[in-house]
Description:
Layout: H1 4-18, H2 23-28, E1 34-41, E2 45-46, H3 50-60, E3 65-68, E4 75-76, E5 81-88, H4 89-119, E6 126-128, H5 138-147, E7 161-163, H6 165-171, H7 174-184, E8 190-194, H8 197-206, E9 210-214, H9 218-227, E10 233-237, H10 245-249, E11 255-257, H11 260-263, E12 270-276
Parallel strand pairs: 6-11, 7-8, 8-9, 9-10, 10-11
Antiparallel strand pairs: 1-5, 1-12, 2-4, 3-5
Amino acid sequence: MYTLIHQVLIDAALAEDMAFKDLTAIATIPAEQQAIATITAKADGVLSGCTIAEQVMTTMNASIKQSWFKQDEDLVKAGDVICELDGNMRSLLSAERTALNFLQHLSGIATATFAYTKALKGTGCIVVDTRKTTPGLRFLEKQAVLHGGGANHRHDLASGMLIKENHIIGAGSITDAVAACHKLAPDTWIEVECETLEEVHEAVAVCPDIILLDNMSIEDVRLARGLVPGSIVLEASGNITLANAHAYAATGINRIAVGAITHSAPALDLSMRVLPL
């Protein structure tokens, strides 16, 4: 879904390159030169950001004709043609980097998320994102997680209450922190971060919606699963990688939170080639 937020981001991104002029395109390309361009995958992955890349081109020049053969959530193989563009060559070249920046970055997140989704297959556990996102791009990056088959955690600090170590210190205890959160916003879900099994015991007693097991070993996560009733969602985070994700999920937890799928995902390798007409 395209929104005003997207347009603001696109305008700001294009302004980084086009606040003045594209001197190289003006110097080398005749003003009325038309061209066909293709965006092609150079690696296997999952697409995200197609709608944004399409709007980048439209914002640069509304007369550019676009044929998208692949869409968000689609799996692509190296060599697949994602789209074909037909229009003014200067406009195509000026918009190229901005369009690819969005498309490659977001597709990288979708691809990284999909890798975790595959690793968790058959366990009943899902991968969720965190707020470790690029400033200004959280909305798009969380969409990319969905395109990769993951799920979203909080979008912001008001969409749920996550009681972490420093909140517990401030409140005095897990019990007091949960009580304070219930008092302030009784209809908002509450998650409690636990670093030890002792903290898990205390958290279970006050019945939060979610218990987050932070940086626990697989064995401790397995023990925690035995302490937490099924009515409470059990989540694990910290030091979880593709190599050990399945082992964590096999303990019976409901979900794993992985900051790396947004803050460290490598861009999916894509390229654009232009042919003058």
